[in-house]
UniProtKB/TrEMBL annotation, chains A, B, C, D:
This is Tritium exchange subunit. Substrate binds at R333. It comes from Nonomuraea terrae. Keywords: Aminotransferase, Pyridoxal phosphate, Transferase. Belongs to the class-V pyridoxal-phosphate-dependent aminotransferase family. The modification N6-(pyridoxal phosphate)lysine is found at K190. Soluble hydrogenase catalyzes both production and consumption of hydrogen from suitable artificial electron donors or acceptors. This subunit catalyzes the tritium-exchange activity.
Length: 379, 379, 379, 379
């Protein structure tokens, strides 16, 4: 009984408004009503990406949007520089390799973001693109994209900048145009508060001009952008998820993006205070790089994060994120993004606090109390 | 953003499952599909009332079910004994008077339940019925219905026992048959986790045999019970709310009534511990009479409960119950009934704690923490 | 598979938009959001009743709204004139008698509306009210309310005029103020395209001034109108159905009431053309009195209307209205009101045509074709 | 007002049950509840594909599932034989070419299915695969897949058989295993009665063994099939559409696939009878090859199909399919698949009949009547 607390770092709690929007009857995707919907949507979408350029919408997961970013811009054998910031950066590199690209991976410890200084020395002339994960969903570490951009600019290097904003879009500030990003990769089920099923590419003029030779059809930007001009798609779009997308964008506009970002910053800070008050460690090791959409918590030696997660799911009906890849069992992740507010955070942290205690993890009292104290003052 | 916390003592948070059930297309209320629905429902309903007899379902509020209980059983000028346990007991008496009954009201201080000892001396031969509010929604005080029954039995008095279970049905133990209740009055929007719009009368054989002469038509049990035998209604039933009722009853059966009651007991105890740890007073003055579905909290002198409620609504998006009648401004009420769980309670109490502090009400720290400590141990 | 055709004369097909509105989370009925909803609703409602006065909204069926009209205005022993226009007029009279009123019933043949000429001779000085069913749901006959009003005016008689618009409100023109109606009785599940569960009384100043002495509490207009001024209700209102009501009223406003009425007139005429082309008889015997919301069809001798209805339900998944009271087995009723359009009517008539043929009822071909021909030309 | 008639050949009318299922809250796609959902779904899916092998589910359109079929099985420069049966067969060939395959296209007149006799002479040893569109959505022509299989078998040729069942799956008999198909391509928004957003590949053992060297990552069957064994996905699956898929599969099972196919056959025959009675021509030129899910209707010379479609949309609120590619303006397409029944068909054909007349297209009367006559007899 009672509502499930879905506090993984995505999919996030979908607002009732959005679920009801999705439940509208499907319409003719070649008719005038759809054309109006799509035209409106494509304009609204630019706001959340902070771009004046096109945003391509795919019926796909975020992984699909990764593939789209690569196959549209690169050619077989192209070299890309990537940063080992966590599990998802690794998966994106594996994808690039499978598609025939050569990946120059800057190693990392999964507790820091992409290192702008390390980038400079990798920028050999043959580098075609730089791949950055803005917000590593597996670690809760944010990469400083503007500093990456600055490193490219300092080097005067023409490489494309491809940025994964899968778990930051709509919850943390990301400025596609201002930051000089060439392809922003996003998806529906995190800050946009939708179910999974939509992937996005925001595309710069430079990226549009620089088409690679990797084979592509489904992911090809051109016929989509062309058809979008009239409000249509070259293949059947995911109509009902688009209904939800419109509703979610309206909700974000109603709150205002700066307020949305401030809300996430505030909840993230409150969460870190709780974690530290419990005597536990936040995985992210650099104060400049904390994620505002999730927090990964390191377990004390000898305690299995997944055992705690299972206990919390069974006893308190809350889902937390598991440790991925090399972090399996060592961290759990608290998602505090999307359709979320102070009292949901209070319930979330209370569940973590009770769950850690019940699992026998040695914590100090007062974590939730510390978060509440910050929330009280932080308005 | 984020979910509203609807923590008034009803209407309560309606489960998504129930809302989706309600959103099914309306059907022919004279057709075979409806007959199956109604027959199933009327059987399932008996479980929650703990009766083998009929339960009459009205398209009405709970107030309508009060009226039904009176006009079916009583005659103009009949005397009824009632107890001043709070705002709703008073309203029920006013209704009785308006319908032409003579009310003998046992006075009360709104901090205690109906007094079984006081009943004995009121049981003159002309008393036709005794009216008791099982769980006073305005005060969070539970009346000890079995002791009222025992007082009637000791006196060998034939008066009918009419019990309002509006805010206890489906959240606190109520045994229509075992406790010898003649009419149990209930409604949809509290423990049954439905929107408002349905009222109930569970009816004993004695009540059915003892029909009064007050004029009645809409509320008349007989044609309804007669039509119900074939799965129909003498007038159009509230089909979509009945869909929701079926779903809600299934949910209660899945959890099991004893577990449902235990959950509410536990949340009520945790709430009282929080209130006391804050240094505040629970309105209910008798340990035997605490409600398990809501808690009314007395404000310190000089502090307006409604100002706190407004602040909490604006800042934390939580609705709490106002003080009613003579308690206006002096108490606020926390609803912890219906579709509710530990983390929702944690969020609720956190919101109260932050709100009291923000409103400048002098409280001690640690109320929410005390509740969590009880919840941790209380499983 | 495929959609059920709910072609009884109410409940009608509820639009998806309305069902989704109803599925919104329930809110605090004493909070500011509810007050805004109620205030908006109560204003919008006036439009559909064509009144500047108050409309009282009950959690009830239409039958409850009948009772409200009587108990608010009349006193025990009052004489009311009523017309036997069909099953529902008879039920209303039975209710009046049960509530202690004296009914002077103008007999009728169930094929004509209320006779304005017959009224004159009944208007003895002791008549307190005249009860008219605007659109007899059991017969598809419309009473000419303005002519009833004129008869009262000619006689200079002060009797109140109580009009049941249960199956005409929102589908056929009804002018509460202009026609001098004192109480208009309505409900949710017909022209208003909602599920059942709401009853209405639109009330004239004269009716408000003329309060009867029948006992009343739940149905009492005064506390409701008083609380409504601030956007509230004296008891818990049916919040979720009110969400649906708002949406339905918006839909009616979008189409415009004159267009709504014209649509129903057109579908009714097309239906009658189909019936006559099949060689069957429409029950309504006066061309001035055809209902625009439903058509009752007389079966040829020796054929059971309910057998046809069952066959159509089983074979074509369409619900039609049964013959009620003395018309049982002799007529079936086609509802063509509410959320309905040309192609739904074409499907409906096709189902009737195929069903009659399959049941062995001797009909001529071409009924549906005749309706389509009218629809083609009738725009 | 009234329901929109969505009679394009997909997306089709989504049942309310399915829309409500989709509106359930999104859950953790790595948790135990999701694992149960996915495991159940993947088993149920086999039934509709009539296969014992795996079915791969993609967050994608049907176009994506085309791409998946190609990139999993073929290598750059591979030769594929395809048939020009209509617009979609052409698009699939274009995709193959863009992905680096060599297409040997058997020309066609868009009024016939794939010619099994023509296949034999194309089966040179270097042919890697044969691509067939089972049911051409642009023409309403069905290809005889078992005869294509027989031609391959007679030639003893090892080419893979790739079959597009996008508009036949779940509405027309397709037997993946029995017919020796290697990859069946499907999607959600046609016979499966879902919104768009899911693509499918049913995969034979032979196809699984025969992996091509086209670059692939998102579409790669192996990690998906591997993760599916435990009820999971290598990337975030479209949870809410999967809820709907489960519900839709249950609905198909309730009716039974043979009954589903018979229903579609019957509606298609009724539609053709209407078309011919109007004096118009069905596009499909071979009696053995009529589609059961849609009917393309040829316009008389001098009449623009799209003008008729626009008129029908505006006047009767029905969407019909446009003529695609070389058929633009020359045909319109009636979708009669998915969640559909006799009375919906009657409404659909009535709308076409009225629309053709209103547009001044010379037709004979009686088309809808001819369809009804067939439906009456055809049970």
């Amino acid at each position: 009984m009672g509502r499930h607390f879905l506090q993984i770092p995505g999919p996030t709690n979908v607002p009732d408004r959005v679920l009801r929007a999705i439940a509208q009857p499907t319409i003719d995707h070649r008719g005038p009503e759809f054309a109006r919907l799509a035209s409106e949507l494509l304009e609204r979408l630019k706001g959340v990406f902070q771009t004046a350029g096109p945003v391509v919408v795919y019926p796909s997961s975020g992984t699909g949007a990764w593939e789209a970013a690569l196959v549209n811009t690169l050619s077989p054998g192209d070299k890309v520089v990537a940063f080992e910031t966590g599990h998802f950066s690794t998966l994106w590199c594996e994808m690039a390799a499978r598609l025939g690209l050569v990946v120059d991976l800057v190693p990392g410890d999964w507790r820091h973001g992409a290192d702008p200084d390390a980038l400079a020395e990798r920028l050999t002339p043959d580098v075609a693109a730089v791949m950055v994960v803005h917000n590593e969903t597996s670690t809760g570490v944010r990469s400083r994209v503007p500093e990456i951009r600055a490193a490219l600019d300092r080097a005067g290097h023409p490489a494309l900048l491809l940025v994964d904003t899968i778990s930051s879009l709509g919850s943390m500030d990301h400025r596609h145009d201002e930051w000089g990003v060439d392809v922003t990769v996003g998806c529906s089920q995190k800050g946009l508060m939708l179910p999974p099923g939509i992937g996005f590419n925001a595309v710069s003029d430079k990226a549009l001009a620089h088409r690679g030779r990797l084979p592509r059809s489904y992911w090809d930007w051109e016929p989509i952008i062309e058809a979008n001009r009239r409000g249509f798609y070259p293949y059947t779009p995911p109509t009902n998820l688009l209904y939800g997308l419109r509703e979610a964008l309206i909700m974000l506009e109603e709150e205002g993006l700066p307020a949305v970002f401030a809300r996430h910053d505030r909840h993230a800070e409150a969460t870190r205070r709780a974690v530290r008050a419990w005597g536990l460690e936040v995985l992210c090791a650099d104060e400049r790089e904390h994620s505002s959409s999730l927090t990964a918590v390191l377990m004390p030696e000898g305690h299995d994060a997944d055992a705690v997660r299972r206990l919390i799911l069974e006893r308190y009906d809350m889902s937390l994120g598991t440790g991925l890849g090399r972090l399996a069992g060592r961290v759990f992740r608290i998602g505090h993004l999307g359709h979320f507010n102070d009292l949901m955070l209070a319930g979330t942290l209370s569940g973590v606090e009770m769950g850690l205690a019940a699992a026998g993890v040695p914590i100090k009292e007062g974590g939730t109390r510390a978060a509440l104290a910050y929330l009280e003052g932080g308005r």
